[in-house]
Amino acid sequence: MTAVYIIAGILAAVLLFRMIKIVPGDSICIVEKKSVYHKTLQPGFHVISPLYSQARIVPVEEKSTNFSGEKMNTSEGNTVEAASTVNYKLWDPYKPFFEFENLDGEVMQRAKDELNKIVAAYSIDAAFNSLGEIEDTLQDRMNSFGKSYGMEFSKVAVNLH
Known about the structure:
- The protein is α+β, with helices and mostly antiparallel strands.
- The protein is built from 5 helices and 8 strands; from the N terminus they run αβββββββααααβ.
């Protein structure tokens, strides 16, 4: 009879161990039910159903992508050469990787497109004199884009020549 209690205690301990997920502050946890995305858990203490859920803790790290040598037209029709570096963090890495085949390529292309639209609103002299404003506008637009995909853009640097 004691063997039954020991086995029941071990099973209860294993079940409890699998139910509790403590997500560290620099990570998130992807929960899948029946091998299909269910939800994302933010840092902290969580309890999940261990019988039909699987959880993976994924570190959240800042990523960087850049481009250079892109020709962009100003409002006057002049051409400037642009380079940009964009730093971002993934707060929900499942969504962007599920939506895009090449996340860095998608971020870089979006940054190019948005920067092209921004530079097109400036004259050549105003563009060179307003780099800080252009960077702020680009960061706001990238954050608007990233909000629905679990991304936050922390730094945007733009060089025009």
